[in-house]
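Subgroup meeting minutes
Present: P.N., E.W., G.H.
Scribe: E.W.

1. P.N. recapped why we're keeping a running log of single-chain structure predictions: easier to compare across weeks, and new members can see raw inputs and outputs side by side.
2. G.H. added today's entry (281 aa).
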Amino acid sequence: MPAGRVDADGLNMGVFLAHGGHGEGLFTGWLAVVPALVVLAGYTAGTWRVRRRGDRWPAAREAAFSLGAMTAAAAVLVPETSGFTGHMLQHVLLGMVAPVLLVLGRPVTLLLRVTSATIRRRLARVLGSGPVGALLFPPFTAALEAGSLWLLYRTGLYAAAAADPVLHGVVHIHAFLTGLLFTAAVCQLEPVRHRSGLGVRAGALVGAAAAHAVLAKTLYTVSPPGALLATADRQAGAQLMYYGGDMVELGLALILALPWYAARGRAEARARRRTDAVRGR
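Output recorded in log:
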């Protein structure tokens, strides 16, 4: 059976054989968990240092980052024999859910608070540089994230990754990094100099969501080139991509809208106080 193809029972034998069966796939999965645990340990050490000197670090941020790291770790432990639906679960967790939670933890802000003054100045220069500003331009990150998905599922890349463990790992890393970059660019919770307005960020989110939804609908109908997926498996995976993406994108929309709504409320309250002060004279 060609790598990346599926038997009548819907078992993705290409992925299974490419990773040497259950044993090797599980072993490499646990190896991929190690970076998540290291990053989580570093973040936790940073929060401990901040609080030890008497400063405040919100528990909600720590909880979000911890859950994001655990979500990323859980994603790579999804069994390689779980077919296209399992692959799509990995995509949603690793490329969408985990990045949102990690960004909510504001790791860059934490890093700036625990490092020395010299390192802070260097980091500030990097964060304020033109290349970082271009990299975090929301329309660019939206095009990168959506374009990568279309490239993966509408070319032979998906089938090729099923047959090559190294390429398979690269695809996962790329999905995570592009998702993280897109989320950071849209939310803009960290202290970067080049910031985009709400309209630009909202437009990028809407564009990425539309591209994501259309791709999911095409996958519901047609398998990726070179991968003959069982109909039920393919459609379940496409539905997971569609509805899971909707939920994450709704969460991103709330992250954008709530600060704007709060700012509008504060502005109106200030305007009312000024009006009341003038009338009281």
